[in-house]
Amino acid sequence: MKTLLHKADTRGYFDHDWLKTSHTFSFARYYDSERVHFGALRVLNDDTISAGEGFGRHPHDNMEIITIPLQGGVLHRDSMANEEIIKAGEIQVMSAGTGIFHEEYNASNNEELTLLQIWIYPDTKNIKPTYSQIGFDPLEAENKWQKLVTKNEPGTLHIHQQASISRILLTEGNTVDYELNKSSFGAYIFLIEGEAEVAGIQLSKRDGLGISQAGNFSVRALKYSYILCIEVPE
């Protein structure tokens, strides 16, 4: 087993007044040659956006973009004529394909928005762009892995890559295993809340851990923990 630990306070951090953002991997003005990607996982941004603020119209292409609001809602508009609000508890997937323009704002004029945005390289380029969002029941994540995003499994959001995103809400003292696909490069664990021991390594809030060259690993909650697992090919 090979592990790669990214402590929360080692991420690239920027305070733009309206946007406070932490980049696990190289992004925008943050560059670290040792942190460009983890397999097909290219971006993991942790954003807090002030009330009424957001990102104006901008383009993307050939990237699978997953947005996970943790608090508040995201107002999304794009060049496919979608206009939606993605609330905490829902997840959005945008397959940019041949190209898309979109904008995303804090849907509230009173409260901050906190979200994770994940970019994964697609396995097929220049597809027709698509958009989807689903709400997921947190009860289905209590002490067991709940799949959120996959290539084509029913009940999940679909992306154009042999990757998956799962979550678990693990109560203190509980231990679960995670089994990787044989073809996977590895899994990137991101501890959203809590404190846990993953593959024998202790993680705190917003720490990340890449695990490769492993068939499985264990996760134990030292405190109640909200954990995201991003499994990707190389």
Notes on the structure:
With 234 residues, the chain is mainly β. The chain is 0% helix and 56% strand. It is built from no helices and 22 strands. The strands form 4 sheets. A 7-stranded mixed β-sheet has the order 1-20-17-22-15-13-14, with no helix packed on it. Strands 2-3-4-11-6-9-12 form a 7-stranded antiparallel β-sheet, with no helix packed on it. A hairpin with a 4-residue loop joins β7 and β8. The two termini are 16 Å apart. The model has no long low-confidence stretch (mean pLDDT 97).
Structure keywords:
single chain, 234 residues, mainly beta, 7-stranded mixed sheet, 7-stranded antiparallel sheet, 22 strands
Mean pLDDT: 97
Which residue ranges are poorly predicted, with pLDDT under 50 across at least 5 consecutive positions? Answer: none
Note the beta-strand portion: over 45%
What is the overall silhouette? Answer: globular
The major beta sheet can be summarized as: 7 strands, mixed
What structural category characterises the helix and strand content? mainly beta
How far the N terminus sits from the C terminus, by CA atoms, comes to 16 Å
Helix % is under 10%
Which sequence of SSEs, written as H and E, runs from N to C? EEEEEEEEEEEEEEEEEEEEEE
Q: Biggest sheet: strands side by side, in what order? A: 1-20-17-22-15-13-14
List the topology elements.
Layout: E1 2-6, E2 12-15, E3 19-23, E4 41-49, E5 54-60, E6 64-71, E7 73-78, E8 83-87, E9 90-95, E10 100-106, E11 113-120, E12 130-135, E13 146-150, E14 157-158, E15 164-170, E16 175-179, E17 186-193, E18 195-198, E19 201-204, E20 208-212, E21 216-221, E22 225-232
Parallel strand pairs: 13-14
Antiparallel strand pairs: 1-20, 2-3, 3-4, 4-11, 5-10, 6-9, 6-11, 7-8, 7-10, 9-12, 13-15, 15-22, 16-21, 17-20, 17-22, 18-19, 18-21
